[in-house]
Specification:
Low-confidence stretches: 66-71
CATH architecture: Orthogonal Bundle
Number of domains: 1
Number of strands: 0
Helix content: over 70%
Radius of gyration: 37 Å
CATH topology: Helix Hairpins
Mean pLDDT: 83
Length: 179
């Protein structure tokens, strides 16, 4: 335990620190609850997006062999796709459109997954802070406050004992002077 002065002023300071630390703990708990709710809300969104992505990917790949192509832009018009409208069937246009939709969904999904990772990290940091307050700081402050209170009580008992002893001495002197 760090060295503390066992004075009433120090006890008042420690009690104020304990109160502040407990308020901070409560605020951090509330923050963590909100973060967890937001995390699950985004998790539902990710789950829905993944389901939608799987459906779109399945319909895009149904019955068509597709080569792997690197794309810089996601959505393209029919003229930008690089083939003649007249020379290909409508199924190719449909497949291209579905794959573009799939890429859009992948981008959306990556954004929400990044949000989930950041929220998860913030939840861990907040949980560590709450634990540090609950398990280290608040108990240490309470221990110091108890030490100060005990020291003050001990001093008061000693002072009371001394006063009683001085009073007895004064009474003996009065009795001795009267005789």
């Amino acid at each position: 335990m760090e060295q503390v002065n066992p004075t009433r002023m120090e006890l008042i300071k420690k009690n104020a620190q304990i109160k502040l630390a407990e308020q901070g703990k409560d605020l951090l708990r509330e923050k963590m609850d909100v973060l967890i709710r937001e995390f699950f809300h985004i998790m539902e969104s990710v789950s829905k997006s993944r389901d939608e992505l799987e459906i779109v990917a399945a319909t895009a790949q149904r019955g068509i062999a597709v080569p792997v192509i690197e794309k810089k832009r996601v959505s393209k018009s029919v003229l930008e796709r690089g083939y003649s409208i007249i020379g290909v069937s409508g199924r190719i246009d449909e497949a291209a459109e579905k794959f573009e939709m799939e890429l859009d969904l992948i981008i959306e999904l990556s954004e929400t997954e990044t949000s989930l990772k950041r929220l998860g990290g913030e939840i861990q940091i907040t949980r560590r802070r709450v634990n540090a307050l609950e398990q280290i700081m608040i108990p240490e402050l309470k221990k110091q406050a108890k030490y100060i209170k005990n020291a003050i009580d001990e001093r008061e008992r000693e002072d009371l004992f001394r006063l009683k002893k001085v009073k007895k001495i004064i009474e003996r002197k009065k009795k001795a002077a009267q005789q």
